[in-house]
Protein: Tryptophan synthase beta chain-like PALP domain-containing protein
Organism: Streptomyces marincola
Amino acid sequence: MTVVERPTDKPQVEGDDESDVHPDDRGWVIDCLQRLRDLAPVETELSEIPLPPRLNGLRLYIKREAEQPSGSHKHRLAAALLTHALVNGWLVEGRPVVEASSGSTAISEAWYCQRLGIPFYAVVPDTTAPEKQELITRYGGTVVPVSGDIVTYARRVAHRYGGHFMDQFTYAERAYDWRGEEGLAAELLRAVPDLTWFVMGAGTGGTAAAVARHARYTGSGLRVCVPDPEHSAYFDGWYWRDSAVTDKGSHIEGIGRPRVEASFVPTTVNRMIRVHDAASVATMRVLDESDWDIQPGPSTGTGVFGAIRVLLGMRDSGQSGSVATLLCDPAERYTDEYYDDDWCHRQGIVFQPWMPTIRDFFRTGEWSPPETVTTVPRPLNSLWNM
Ligand SMILES: Cc1ncc(COP(=O)(O)O)c(C=O)c1O
């Protein structure tokens, strides 16, 4: 047997070495963790969306996560990822945090990093809406726009500046504290103890996994449904139990991915629904025009569309119960995109035929989807990330 010498110039001291390879900056870490506790995400309001009498016995709720201080449910993820990185000893005082993101996650991480005095870099696709880049910069972050794969670039930026790549797509599901009494699922189940379904699209998949785990852990019967946009790999990955599935990537900002990310935990998802981009955008716009004080982004449209499909299924099988989804982020981040008719037209999102379908559902409980659903080829340079 050949014995391979370890390439080290440190003396081997009988396997007992208080190493300086992994510095433990305990005072700074404790201080940051205390500040994170002081800045904990807020308990957001749960509103009921009125349903017509034909859906008697059924209830629809929307949790207003856009009320979080950095404007989306990613406020919870940013706090969780920073906590996880700090307790793991991954962050070093004065060194930056780097994230691959084009939206909500980067904005929320920038918000927290500014308050913790941690430099922050967001590697974003160069197509990212200026409103979002502006928010990241307003919270003290540095925006690095790139035309290639943002994850690869984020790794390089982290290496270049001696920082830490946060990697939400890998760590979201394990960073969330799904056992605790403070998280999203606990808040939902405190408000509606017999909640039947939680419906939400998957970006990292971390929120869906955390809610599902909390439900199982606390003995709730709550089930999780993930509506998935066109050209996301998640539906097929889930259906075929194949994590190697890939697709072109979603066109609904924040949800759907070109590959099955490590944070998506298929076994925690009870049901998935494919949703046309046009249906997501129409639902978003019907919510916005309603008098329910809901001004959502497109992923909320996908979530509410999924919730409608779940409610229709419950009605048809004579069940009663309640369904909840999230107001993920606000309309104001998408004024020049999904709320702009010309932009939608250029992207091939023909949402108009779906508008009467969604309006009729909320007015009468009738469900009559458009007879022909046009799918138009999409420009390949506008795949959305997070
Ligand atoms: C606007 C928006 N909606 C929904 C999601 C999905 O959340 P999750 O990453 O927990 O799956 C994201 C994720 O970034 C998002 O930005």
